[in-house]
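note to self — DONT lose this again. spent like an hour looking for the file last time. sequence + predicted structure for the chain T wanted, 368 res
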Amino acid sequence: MRILHIINNLNKGGAERLLVDNLPLYIKADVHVEVLQLSELHSEPQYLKTLLDGGVKCHSLGQTSLYNPLLVMSLVKFLSQNRFDIVHVHLFPAMYWVAIASKFISQKPVLVFTEHSTQNKRSKNSLLKPLEIFIYRSYNSIIAISEQIKDKLISWTGFTDKIRVIRNGVDTLRFEQAPKYDDLFWTNEFSIPRGSVKMLMTARFSYPKDHATLVRALSQLPGNHFLILVGEGPNKEEIKALSLVQGVSERVIFAGFRNDVSSLMKSVDINILSTDYEGMSGVSLEALASGQPFLGSDVAGINDLVPDSRYLFAARNSDAAAQQITNIIANPALKTSMISDGLEHASKFDVNYTLNNHLKLYSEIVTH
């Protein structure tokens, strides 16, 4: 079976990261898989390198805008010249362009689309609903990564039979085997004093991520607490300015894009994700698998993913975030139980679960 995954680009987002982490496992399972980017613009070179090193053949349609309608003709040409049994699509606008291109291909491949998010602007515009239904109908199967996403898709499209829940998984072994950094690393790398309380958020600086709440929470915490923010994005300068206003600029570390996230997560005191919503938070699962406590906003995509309310704080509530952080740091028994229960919970979402269920779906719809 020949499988092609199509995505907008290999930018530093959650869906992109999932492909980078998961597709080399297809190769290890002796499954033929390739990747097609609609555009190379804004792609992360390290992501591309990781896929190539893992044996995944990668293609691109050039460096055009993702919203260029000429991408439809480029897709028609590529998919006509390169035969695949399954074309698995991720994100908007890739889902639109592939659906439209499929109408012009004589031997149409089986199309699968994964819906990664509980919310999008299109679903709030009733005028787009007929077009949306046309697009979704073009796919043989639609994967929702959570029950909440499935329910919203059914409500929006009216489809029931073609929507299946397959949760994303994480490579738990990668976190088990990751080296753990000592205090000296944090001092040398980020000038964080030894013995400090280190909190880590790994997320792109863009909506729906909510770095601001953690910066405000930090202003309520003792001076030995440091917040490390891993990622890039358009809102980064705004958060830097806020850290100055809050008087915590010396305790907020803007670490940029990192390739050692598993070690960072494994080495801090608390991993945190503050956000307005998630599809299904892979970062939350990774944090649970890291062997350190995790805190996340009490929103869809997190509250249905963590073991219980110990791992949550009220969204956009810096007081609640600061209080939860204080509780964990001050209570070793609570911290130990959160680590233990988090590890057990994360093991249920091992990446092989996702891989096996994707392959099972592919086989079913190809032979249907």
